[in-house]
Amino acid sequence: MIVAKTREETRKAVAEARKAGKSVGLVPTMGALHAGHVSLVKQSVADNGFTVVSIFVNPTQFGPSEDFTKYPRQLEADAELCRKAGVDVIFAPAPHEMYPEDFSTYVEETRLSKGLCGRSRPTHFRGVTTVVMKLLNIVMPDRAYFGQKDAQQAAVIKRMVRDLDVPVEIVVMPIVREGDGLAMSSRNKYLAGDLQSEAPALSRALEEAKRVFAAGERDVAALQSVMKNVIAAAPHAKVDYVEVVDAATLEPVKKIARTALVALAVFVGDTRIIDNTVLEP
Amino acid sequence: MIVAKTREETRKAVAEARKAGKSVGLVPTMGALHAGHVSLVKQSVADNGFTVVSIFVNPTQFGPSEDFTKYPRQLEADAELCRKAGVDVIFAPAPHEMYPEDFSTYVEETRLSKGLCGRSRPTHFRGVTTVVMKLLNIVMPDRAYFGQKDAQQAAVIKRMVRDLDVPVEIVVMPIVREGDGLAMSSRNKYLAGDLQSEAPALSRALEEAKRVFAAGERDVAALQSVMKNVIAAAPHAKVDYVEVVDAATLEPVKKIARTALVALAVFVGDTRIIDNTVLEP
Question: Which domains, ranges and CATH numbers included, belong to chain A?
Answer without folding.
Answer: 2-173 (3.40.50.620), 186-279 (3.30.1300.10)
